Fold these 2 entries.
Entry 1:
Amino acid sequence: MEDYRYKWILGFVLLLAAMLALFMLNIGLGSVSIPLEDIFNVLSGEQASRTAYNSIILKSRLPQTITAILAGAGLAVGGLQMQTLFRNPLAGPSILGISSGAGLGVALVLLFAGNILGVSISGYGLIGHMTVVGAAFVGAFFILLLIVFFARALRDNTILLIVGIMVGYAASAIIGVMKFYSPKEDVHAYVIWGLGSFSNVTWEHLMILIPVVVIGLIFSLLLIKPLNVLILGENYAENLGINIKKTRLAILLCTGILTAAITAFCGPIAFLGLAVPHLTKGLFRTTNQKVLLPAVIFAGSVLALFCNLIARMPGFEGALPINVVTGLIGAPIVISVIIKRRKLNMNG
Amino acid sequence: MDKAILLQSDDLAVGYHRNTAKELVLHKNINVQLHQGEFACLLGPNGAGKSTLIKTLSGFIPKIKGTIKVDGRELHSYKRNQLAKVVSVVLTERLLVSNMTVFDLVALGRTPYTDFFGTVSKKDKLKVLQAIDDVGLHGFANRQLVCMSDGERQKAMIAKALVQDTSLIILDEPTAFLDLPSKIEIVQLLKKLAREKNKGILLSTHDLDLALQLADKIWLLAQGRQLEDGIPEDLVLADGFRRFFEKEGILFDNERGAFKVEQEQLKTIRVVGKGIEYKWLSHALNRKGYQTTEAEGDYPHIEVDKTNNKAYILHQTDGSMHALRTIEDLLQQITLD
């Protein structure tokens, strides 16, 4: 037991160090490189050697970095919760169609409004962006409510999972129809939203995103005990005194709120939520949520910061969409997990 | 010594509420008791409704009629967390979670007693380690579940049930996917635990042999029949097993306490001898469709000669004689003639 604990502490120290380093790199690197000294100056509220640095850091890079941290942490927690609840290693925060719901909301605004009402929201700048965020939020919550409704009616988790995936497919299908009948520019705007981005989030947005994600994370900490027991499956959990339906509802709401908020502001971020719990379990080698939950919060932030950094590497000039990067990093992780599981099954 | 009744059902009916209007009753009029220190086996063929009864008794599904009393109190009057301290379960399902150790698993059994975050105290830790020892997994605390055999994993599950500190442990076919030695080990362990820890243990199984040899009490259940209970020997004498398990061509041998397959026995053969060789020779002959007898008559006879390097001497009706070393050779010789 004791050497485990030592390993865990080491893991947390590593993650924290990586997070700090990546935080600084995210602020310092980009199309304009900013020296470390200036970063400290700006962050402590003083003037940098060049005034441009102040505005680059405060207006663009700092909110972007904070967004990446929040999104990474929130999605990773959602992924861990879904994987534990459904006892399925391939579940992620968007498995129940919540991000498809957000997409549906955005599609309704970008495509449908453009088509029927003749207004192209994509051309409206900031107001347009807020409308998109609102629509995504409403869409995600609509699907979340639908899932919660099913969760109350269904006892079996596997069936709930299938229903959730089907709801996601249905939402995607409706989006497909709308795309088909929409003008090119609107479809393009939708595609861009769908590629995800941490850079469209302003301080005003963060005033909403920060509290929602923080509340979601605190909420998730309260679910540590039931999640730990759910590893044994619903029957054992129930016998150990866990109220399955209530717990399931709480978990769905927690993941739902986190995913809805993050997807609304950043677009659907693929793979992060699925891959981070696997990475973390590989690092910490435990099923104890008391260790795993804080660990995925840090690991999620680290991976999101890393992806954001790559997306902004010199040469890409900030043009690389975040989903391309998360996908390229996430896909190999998912593949290795599947292969590892196969090996395990063959051995036992 | 009068042991307390831990589990008691009166006029119990079990089944499923398909919807509020329609009920599907599988069994009714169930009146059973389980005492402290008693190891009972709920025995029945697959599809008899064992699982439904087990699930009802452990509080997973609601009963349809009657009463269930656990520790002298109505089952449904317990709150979820109270019930977790009175009844623990072990189920058939295989638990394959990577990165989980035996200790982690068994410690989850303390859930009803731990704080809001599920912190395992020093006292809990000692209990967990003790339970791991009790089920014979000493030194396995830090072993990964995925690196253990199915039997060892079920033992860990039993340890989980032990640390739950319940007076009653209910197991739903925990040995269904285990090989025979592991089955025997688990059932023996349960019997021992019932006695030593003074718990009431109820196990459902379709393994008649094991139940017959180890159970203090047997509850017999079959589709469309009234549950019958009693100690194994009484049930045999009352023809209970015959009535519950009989199918065409399969007969429960009340003398041997095992099944035998009814076969057409065309020819008679006389067997003379004693001891284990005699017993297995008769077994082989019966299997091949011969009726064995010790009486003399107009048929071949076999002598089991233990002195002469375990030879079997076959005397044919025509007077010819063959000495054979194995039963296999003997059977071959008989069919040749």
Entry 2:
Amino acid sequence: MSEDIIKQIRSFIFENFLFDADDDSLKNDDSFLEQGVIDSTGVLELVDWLEETFDMKVEDEELIPENLDSVNRLSSFIAKKTQ
Amino acid sequence: MCGIAGILNISSDKPVKQEVLERMIFPVTHRGPDGFGFYVGKDVGLAHARLSIIDLEGGWQPIHNEDKTLWVIFNGEIFNYLELRKELEERGHRFYTNSDTEVIVHLYEEKKEKCLDELNGQFAIALYDTREKILFLARDRMGIRPLFYTMYKGSLYFSSEIKSLFAGNPSIPRELNPEVLKEIFTFWMPGGSETVFQGISQLEPGHWARVSVNGGIHIQEYWDIPFAASHVDSGKKEEEYAEQLRDLLIDSVRLRLRADVPVGAYLSGGLDSSVITSLIHHYTDNPLKTFSVTFSDKVYDEQAEQQEMVDYLTTDHHAEHCTYEKIGQAFPEVIWHTETPVLRTAPTPLYLLSSLVQRNKYKVVLTGEGADEILGGYDIFKEAKIRAFIKKNIDSEIRPLLLKRLYPYLALSPTKSAEYSRKFFNTDADVNELFYAHQPRWQTTGRTAVFFSENLKERDSAAGIRKLEKRFAEKLDGCDFFSRAQYVESKLLLGNYLLCSQGDRMAMAHSVEGRFPFLDHRVVEFACTIPPHLRMKVLNEKNILKKSMADILPASIVKRKKQPYMAPDILSFFGGKEPDYIDYYLSPAMVKEAGFFNPKAVSRLMSKCRKKSRQGFRENMAFVGMLSTQIVYDKFVRNFQVVQPEKLDNIKIIS
């Protein structure tokens, strides 16, 4: 399950923010902020995608880097929200 | 207003030909559709396309001095020409026209390059001294009127627009400069005198050049925005600053209404253009015709505010309504006029607006540009203040939320979480860094590099910033961060984007001259003497301007939260019917041939756009930037073409 989700997250991130980068250019623990993958408006794109794909609602107070700032963090966040 | 072009032989001994001058001046006929004039010597040629505004009968150029040893062509206006002429006549000079141009030759006769200190205006000047065999070029202080040049095979070619250089001599290389392209994808515009075309430079604002036959080119700055010199607190009260500013602006508006044709005004709905229209209404007897852009997309539209001013001043008002399709359709034509890649579509509505002005038979409009830069209006200044405030107490959970207040007009608000705010706005940065205020913007914009080709990626990304540091460090030494931000914004955003790509080029495309009361150098110099903490008082932008105008504006306009002028970007191409040309300019083959972007990344962005999902700042800038780069490549490098007439109509002077 979590591997599938990680795959899904990576594919979304590459498709929408990295466009044509090599697969090894982003590790699952890399911070999106520090790697410059996502800018301030990118976070909202990410939230749109989460809400649509996983049928969940992301609350304002959940919009924090601890939940959203790497592939692994996203995967845990999705797991927590959808369990 | 006008277009100018010319040639000076430096080491070449090929005589200058009239026919080459005609090929150069024809492509800028939109700048001056009323007729042409030429001066042709053995080593020099001057060409002029005229838009008649002052001295409709007699002002044909080139214009000479009493003994015909000095010849001038000129694009722009000298607003204080009546005062200068009176003084010159008292000193014995004889005039043969009533035009403002003629004061230049007489003043130059007396003072050489020091003549520029006396001119209150917006201009690009080319003056030939037949005795000394010297060509003198000059540009106004803020860069309102353009002037480009290149050296090719021993000759200097210059013109109001780059297309003239390429049309005049088809052997001049037409190549895009990858370094400058990287600057554009960081700063939004070229950082200095280089253009996106290899070997083609602009004469910078506030500079003159002396070029001599058998000699070389000497370029010198004669004026710069004096932010750095403004740190002595005069002890004046806010009210005194406000009163002085008002007096200066009234005079600036009066001077800028001098014309032998009717003068209109742009009205955006914001504070600055409201100030200008209200000053015209209250302090002059000019019948007021106003022009506005409206948008079908409500995020960008300011129609309600525009209407409020129209009702308040009862002006004769006209609006150009912009839909996504209209902006998308006009965009390639807009890029033919900007002659440089842009990261925003925002010039396009102004191109459509100048067409509306032209259809109303107006040639001159007053506009509000410059107030944000010189009087402290932009959000980037506010953002810098908030970042500095956060830095002072870095552990505060509350302070970062101030950033939230900053960008409510954007549907895409980045500032929901304090932690994100901190990261996106780099609140840990040191306030003393030279480009403190601009770093977050440049960093965000620089992320468009994800679309670059390998070739472009390999080039040093920091080169552009280092060049800027070299140019600005000394000038800004000891300057506070707020003034530094204003200076950088005035030099880059205003000088190298707003006044050219979005200003001169969009208005002149339809033979319309913009005039800018806030950019009268007396106003600019005065604004620099206002202490930085009063320019933006706490977070109240343009504090002194608001104080000085409150009694001649509706309170709602003064109190209104600032909305920056923007147009829909990606949506202009994908929000309605997609223009056919998108697949041509951005086809993988064309992208590969141009060599600047990664075709696969471009295609992925296009599919993302076609899905009409939410797009971030970076994607919007990248898309418009790449599309415009490809258009520049196609129209100027690959398929450059100006269909020249067999014979120029309407030649008025050949000397």
